[in-house]
Write the structure tokens for this entry.
Amino acid sequence: MKRIGLLSDTHGFLDKEYFEFLKDVDEIWHAGDIGTNEIADELQEFKVLRAVFGNIDDHIIRSRFPAHQKFEIEGMKIFMTHIGGYPGRYAPPVKSEIFKNPPDIFISGHSHILKVMPDKHLNLLHINPGAAGNRGIHKVKTVLRFVLNNKNISDLEILEKPRK
């Protein structure tokens, strides 16, 4: 069993309340637009960090994290990227890979819109954690946590905070 914290689009900002929400997770996954190397350091010092760079991330973040992460955990294939689209509308850079080798969970950020939705055609779950930072179109900041256990996802919880 692995407890996962998931966030995206921090754009150089981490609310201290996020650490309380994520205190019991085993790993934190960041789906891009981290914003600063200091944010990545802070997350990595707190928990195991898996991250991808986003379109606003500089050369330092890009040298530290890949554009795409593919890995297996608890028997589930995970594919995480920043700009990935949605079921039925996947982004061209990842579409062929998703169709050729569908993951169990496809994670992307970028839109600043929280969405958890199945792709019944490819038998995968798409997750976009929304945005945890203060920059962008969103009015509510969101961070997720969930449990992966023996090829199952459960206990999905959302922290929502008004954006000020």
User: Anything to note?
Assistant: The domain at 2-162 is CATH 3.60.21.10 (Purple Acid Phosphatase; chain A, domain 2).
